């Protein structure tokens, strides 16, 4: 049985609404947790994504934003002594962003806070894997 274009459009609109609603809940969750640590949501996102040394461009990709926005965020984190810029080991034009000891400790605390009552915590690990796979599949299709 084929679906009419109208029915398909309604289903897609509803699905987009759910994805958008989830994204908004996640963003609000990050904002709330970040505020308890004296961080902005962007700073918290940068810390969350800094799982190791990386370039500004790599961090921008992980944060899904422009490198210029990342520079602004990293400047603030650097002023707070949470991040340092080090020479890149193989590219003299680039800098490696590295968490300081204080930044590493704050990141660990942030990750703990983000795990508490996360919008996704109502899903089992198996359900989270299925959702991850479906979203990844949707993103790679044209």
Automatic annotation (TrEMBL):
Coiled coil feature spans: none
Biological processes per GO annotation: response to stress
Domain HTH marR-type residue range list: 12-140
A Pfam cross-reference name: MarR
Gene Ontology molecular function: any one: DNA-binding transcription factor activity
Domain of life: Bacteria
PANTHER family according to UniProt: MARR FAMILY REGULATORY PROTEIN (PTHR33164:SF99), TRANSCRIPTIONAL REGULATOR, MARR FAMILY (PTHR33164)
Name of protein: MarR family transcriptional regulator
Origin organism lineage: Bacteria, Bacillati, Actinomycetota, Actinomycetes, Kitasatosporales
């Amino acid at each position: 049985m084929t679906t009419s274009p109208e029915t398909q459009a309604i289903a897609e609109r509803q699905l987009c609404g759910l994805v958008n609603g989830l994204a908004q809940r996640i963003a609000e969750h990050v904002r709330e947790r970040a505020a308890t640590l004296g961080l902005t949501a962007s700073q918290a996102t940068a810390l969350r994504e800094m799982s190791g040394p990386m370039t500004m461009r790599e961090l921008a990709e992980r944060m899904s934003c422009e490198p210029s926005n990342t520079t602004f965020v990293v400047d603030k984190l650097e002023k707070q002594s949470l991040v340092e810029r080090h020479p890149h080991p193989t590219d003299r034009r680039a800098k490696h962003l590295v968490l300081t000891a204080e930044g590493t400790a704050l990141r660990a605390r942030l990750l703990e806070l983000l795990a508490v009552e996360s919008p996704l915590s109502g899903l089992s690990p198996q359900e989270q894997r299925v959702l991850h796979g479906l979203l990844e599949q949707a993103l790679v299709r044209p």
